Amino acid sequence: MASVAPIHFAGTDTLSLRQLDELNGLPKGASFRWFKACEAELVEGRDYFHLPADAHQAFIDELRVAGQIYTSTRHLLLLTRSGYEQLRARSAT
User: Fold this and answer.
1) What is the CATH number for 54?
2) CB environment 12-51: b (16+ within 10 A), e (fewer)
3) pLDDT tens readout for residues 24-64
4) Angle 41-10-16 (CA atoms, 0-180°, nearest 5)?
């Protein structure tokens, strides 16, 4: 995960879906589809953070301006290292 700057949230380094798509050379939306396929196995607060727009709009706007998330992002999904590793493991099978 050295090629992108992590997003620090809740004391944890995380990556946005845009960052994961870029890191893996995938088209927009691929990491979200990975996430949806694995969501039932992931634990919110450990593997990922879901930040609804109504509670985190300023943070979302800041990340959008910085180019760390897609401009169309409304509710933010951030994956931790453990969440990303689970997505990668699942995609390899």
Assistant:
1) 3.10.260
2) eebbbbbbbbbeeeeeeeebeebbeebeeebeeeebbbeb
3) 899 999 999 999 999 999 999 999 999 999 999 999 999 99
4) 60
Question: What is the domain extent for residue 24?
Answer: 7-92
CA distances from 58 to 3, 41, 61 (A): 25, 30, 5
Residues 6+ apart with CB under 8 A from 58: none
Domain membership flag for residue 1: no
Q: Give the model's confidence band at 1: pLDDT under 50 very low, under 70 low, under 90 confident, else very high.
A: very low
Q: Can you tell me the distance from the alpha carbon of 67 to that of 70, in angstroms, rounded to the nearest whole number?
A: 7
